């Protein structure tokens, strides 16, 4: 089976930097995703890591360490619109395309 | 424009009734999925289908049924056997061996039992 752990809630200040951690246990690994979900809306894709290291995309970066079962999402220059839930998700099987989601981290940005 | 459409946006069900949620995509994606999300929770997989006329149970399939008669369509029926159906239901699609983009999601259906 799989297990994905993320903090339930985080708070940060506009203009600052925040790191959202994700740890996982899985028997198979074929990539880790981060999604953003605003309240009442569908998730939207942020990043995908399959190899160790840092992937940078504008204000957002994602890091993966497969040996440690660890990933983080780094958000820089925080804006009020970044208030949302951030979902860590695993693709566990190369022959199937399904993704398993964590419970998500609800990020609140204060002025 | 290509996309994935869920309908209706809001749905009310009386206890004991079956209801069907629609999901249609014109992205030419092979795989389609149904997830359930409860308040403050992550997404839990109900059913998924990687090709037409084939589908597999996810983690919480009891009380639900699906069909995949066309590549574009993957309707979900919430049966009376599902004891706690009130939730936000999300449909998604992807290419069969997904690359960097992961899923494309529909806008969701919020189901409430009255």
What gap, in angstroms, lies between the N and C termini of chain A?
Answer: 41 Å
Low-pLDDT residue intervals, each spanning 5 or more residues of chain B: none
Strand content of chain A: over 45%
Gyration radius of chain A (Cα, Å) is: 14 Å
- As an assembly, this protein is heterodimer
Structural class of chain A: mainly beta
Whole-angstrom Rg of chain B: 13 Å
Helical residue percent of chain A?
A: under 10%
Mean pLDDT across all residues of chain B, rounded? 91
Distance between the termini of chain B: 36 Å
What is the strand tally of chain B? Answer: 11
Q: Enumerate how many helices of chain B there are, as a single number.
A: 0
Taking the sheet with the most strands of chain A, its summary is: 6 strands, mixed
Descriptive overview:
The complex is a heterodimer of chains A (111) and B (114). In chain A, a hairpin with a 6-residue loop joins strand 4 (32-37) and strand 5. In chain A, the strands form 2 sheets. In chain A, strands 2, 4, 5, 9, 10 and 11 form a 6-stranded mixed sheet that branches. Chain A has a 5-stranded antiparallel sheet with strand order 1-3-8-7-6, with no helix packed on it. Chain A has no helices and 11 strands. Chain A is 0% helix and 58% strand. Chain A is mainly β and 111 residues long. Chain B has 114 residues and is an all-beta fold. Chain B is 0% helix and 49% strand. Chain B is built from no helices and 11 strands. Chain B has strands at residues 4-7, 10-13, 19-25, 31-37, 43-51, 54-57, 64-66, 76-78, 87-94, 104-105, 109-113. In chain B, the strands form 2 sheets. In chain B, strands 2, 4, 5, 6, 9, 10 and 11 form a 7-stranded mixed sheet that branches. In chain B, strand 4 and strand 5 form a beta hairpin. Chain B starts with a strand and ends with a strand. The mean pLDDT of chain B is 91. Chain A binds chain B through residues 4, 33, 35, 40-45, 48, 87, 89, 91, 94, 96-104, 106, and chain B through 31, 33, 35, 40-45, 48, 50, 58, 88, 90, 94-98, 100-103, 105-108, 110.
């Amino acid at each position: 089976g799989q297990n994905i752990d993320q903090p339930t809630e985080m708070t940060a200040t506009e203009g600052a930097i925040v790191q959202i951690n994700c740890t996982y246990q899985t028997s198979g690994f074929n990539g880790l995703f981060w999604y953003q979900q605003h309240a009442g809306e569908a998730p939207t894709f942020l990043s995908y890591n399959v190899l160790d290291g840092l992937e940078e995309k504008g204000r957002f970066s994602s890091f993966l360490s497969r040996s440690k079962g660890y990933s983080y999402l780094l958000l820089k220059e925080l804006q009020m619109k970044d208030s949302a839930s951030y979902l860590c998700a695993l693709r566990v099987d190369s022959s199937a395309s399904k993704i398993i989601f964590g419970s998500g981290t609800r990020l609140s940005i204060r002025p | 424009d290509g996309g994935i459409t869920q309908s209706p946006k809001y749905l009310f069900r009386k206890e004991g009734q079956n209801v069907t949620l629609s999901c249609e995509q014109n992205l030419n994606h092979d795989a389609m999925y149904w997830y359930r999300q409860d308040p403050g929770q992550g997404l839990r997989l109900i059913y998924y289908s990687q090709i037409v006329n084939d589908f597999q149970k996810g983690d919480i399939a009891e009380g639900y049924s699906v069909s995949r008669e066309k590549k574009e369509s993957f309707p979900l029926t919430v049966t009376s056997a599902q004891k706690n159906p009130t939730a936000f239901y999300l449909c998604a699609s992807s290419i069969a061996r997904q690359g960097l983009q992961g899923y494309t999601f529909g806008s969701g259906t919020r189901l409430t039992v009255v």
